[in-house]
Structures are given as structure tokens and as C-alpha cells.
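Quick start: what a row looks like.
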Amino acid sequence: MKLTDAQRLDRARRGEKNTRPVTAEIRVNPHQRTATLRLLGKSGAVELDRNAVPLPGEWSYECGPLRTAAGEIIAERGFRLDGGWAELDDLTARTPIVPTGEYLAYVDRMYGPVPELGVLPPGVTARSVQRGRWQIRKENRRFWDLTWQPRLGGDVWRLWTGPRATQLVATAESPEGALAPVTASK
């Protein structure tokens, strides 16, 4: 059975929810004087490699300043602490985490409908070629590719040109900003 785009997105959204981190763990390696923050899923395992982050500095035991550094990274990833840190031993501490509203909005954009481009400048047309990618054409038959990538902290729109759309022309937070060079071109 072939899945529709909506079914694939729904499946991906459920997968994200099932693997979403629910616990943060700090683990210190005293022999190497390093520490790692791991974001653990419901199963207690690191669900994705991107959820294991080396913490800056040299560490020989788990401590308050290390927790502060970990808290900053947790916030950057779109989560907040949902309780205090519990020491498992001198080298390991864990705390529950929950997604922030910003993270949930990012997930909605990632697995929801693609944003509309809005009103295009006169003489400019757009044709969707895949999710988050449009081919832009101006009257004079110049072509560009416009891409959209949802991100935590603000989506990114990019305008590309050249063979196989490999030359970056503009980066912006909105389609209008990314399309500005199209409007300016002759």
C-alpha cells in the first residue's frame, strides 16, 4: 500500500513523539575529564545521536556549574527542566525534561502543512517541486529554487541559482526576504 504525503507526515510526527527526549542525563568521565549531556527517550536510551552533546570544559565530578551548562543546552534544544537533578552517583545526574511551546510549534511546522508563499511580485511565478521546495520563474525565464526549512528559533528560507540550484543567493526568515533578489533582478 502506497502512503499519501499526509500519511507519511502523520507517521513521522508519531515517530518524533515516540522518540522525543523525556530525561536529561549528565555523565562525567573522570579519567578523560569530560562530561556529556544525553537526552533520553521514554525507553531510557539515547534515541538520536544528536541528543548526546559533549559539555565544554574539564570535569572530574558532577556538580552545579555542570548542571547549569547542561541546562543551557537543554533550553537551546527546545526543552525545559521539569524537576530537579537527581544524583545517581558522583558522576551521573538525571532530570525530567518537557518540550517548550517553541519546540512543539517547530514540530507542528515540521510535520504540518507547508507554509504559503503569499503574494508573489508581478511577473514571478512559483511551482512546488517537492515539500519545502519551489521553482521560481520570472518573465525573462530566469529560474531559481526557493527552499524552506523549519528550525527551532526561526525557519530558514533560501534562494538558490546555478546548475542544479547549488549557488546560494539569499537566506532569510521569510519567503519575501529570500525572494528579494528575484524582484531586484532584471
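That is the whole record. The chain has four helices and eleven strands. The chain has a mean pLDDT of 91.
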